[in-house]
């Protein structure tokens, strides 16, 4: 059983749901990201999702896209993110880390070399937002050989046929995009989310996390009644941006928001 699967099983046994915060690695500097990772764990994170800086984050909305720009401007990329995970692992070997990014840096790295480096660093899962599942078999095989989960996005528009296919290639958990469009957009319709999760579970037995548009404890609690995890990104990235010049304020605001969400999932 992978580290990610073990976390979900443990939470299920306790009748709890996972809190999965997203931050972009290197936004504000790698040292700040490392501190935030440890604080997020202290504040209830079950799994941490790290955005890998990329120059063309086409699937992300303005808030997260700008965080990529800021990190790329500092010169950060995939190698730096793997170094960051290694540093995190020096004092935390239990919290799963998922890298969320785009295919180009992985292709430039080379699938085999990337998988080996990710495993050595302590990465537990990878989500490649612009890789169609139908083209993922080679990377899936290589990641599986390195005992790294391959996580996929599912949208409201995902067909039943693709869900059937995803059931064969996905592992760890499914990331359900609760809204059409890019990250950070719109408001969630809880009934529509529930209907989509029921459809997903007809074909896929993995835990399902819901992301996009979850900004507060109230929404997190409503969505968690139907899902296995709550994934929160844009609102946390906004805090990093707004308080980048006041570290103490940044950390306190991040703690407040994280606790607001994580406590309703317990």
Query: Could you name the ranges where pLDDT drops below 50 across 5 or more consecutive residues?
Result: 181-185
Distance between the termini: 23 Å
> What's the story with the biggest beta sheet?
8 strands, parallel, barrel
What is the typical, i.e. mean, pLDDT? 94
State the helicity in percent bands.
40-55%
In short:
By secondary structure, the protein is an alpha/beta fold. It has twelve helices and eight strands. An eight-stranded parallel β-barrel has the order 1-2-3-4-5-6-7-8, surrounded by nine helices.
Description:
The chain has 266 residues and is an alpha/beta fold. 50% of the residues lie in helices and 14% in strands. It is built from twelve helices and eight strands. An eight-stranded parallel beta barrel has the order 1-2-3-4-5-6-7-8, surrounded by nine helices. α10 runs parallel beside α12 and α11 packs antiparallel against α12 (247-262). It is globular. The model is unreliable at 181-185 (pLDDT under 50).
Properties at a glance:
12 helices, alpha/beta, 266 residues
Q: What layout of secondary structure does this protein have?
A:
Layout: H1 3-13, E1 18-24, H2 30-42, E2 48-51, H3 62-73, H4 78-89, E3 97-101, H5 103-109, H6 111-121, E4 125-128, H7 137-145, E5 149-154, H8 160-169, E6 174-177, H9 190-203, E7 208-211, H10 217-224, E8 229-232, H11 234-242, H12 247-262
Parallel strand pairs: 1-2, 1-8, 2-3, 3-4, 4-5, 5-6, 6-7, 7-8
Helix pairs in contact: 2-4, 4-6, 5-6, 10-12, 11-12
């Amino acid at each position: 059983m992978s580290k990610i699967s073990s976390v979900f099983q443990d939470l299920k046994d306790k009748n709890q749901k996972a809190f999965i915060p997203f931050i972009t690695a290197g936004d504000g500097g790698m040292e700040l990201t490392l501190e935030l990772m440890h604080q997020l764990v202290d504040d209830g994170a079950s799994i941490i999702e790290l955005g890998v800086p990329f120059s063309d984050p086409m699937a992300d909305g303005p808030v997260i896209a700008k965080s990529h720009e800021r990190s790329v401007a500092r010169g950060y990329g995939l190698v730096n993110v793997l170094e960051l995970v290694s540093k995190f692992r020096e004092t935390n070997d239990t919290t799963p880390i998922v890298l969320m990014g785009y295919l180009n840096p992985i292709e430039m790295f080379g699938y085999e070399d990337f998988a080996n480096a990710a495993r050595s660093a302590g990465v537990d899962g990878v989500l490649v937002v612009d890789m169609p599942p139908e083209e993922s078999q080679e990377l899936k095989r290589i990641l599986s050989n390195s005992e790294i989960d391959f996580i996929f996005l599912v949208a409201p528009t995902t067909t039943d046929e693709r869900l059937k296919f995803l059931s064969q290639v996905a592992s760890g958990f499914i990331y359900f995009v609760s809204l059409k469009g890019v990250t950070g957009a719109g408001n969630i319709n809880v009934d529509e989310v529930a209907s989509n999760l029921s459809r997903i579970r007809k074909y896929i037995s993995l835990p399902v996390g819901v992301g996009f548009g979850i900004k507060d404890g109230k929404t997190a609690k409503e969505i968690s009644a139907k899902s296995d995890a709550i994934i929160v990104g844009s609102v946390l990235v906004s805090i990093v941006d707004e308080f980048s010049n006041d570290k103490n304020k940044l950390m306190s605001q991040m703690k407040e928001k994280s606790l607001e969400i994580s406590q309703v999932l317990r």
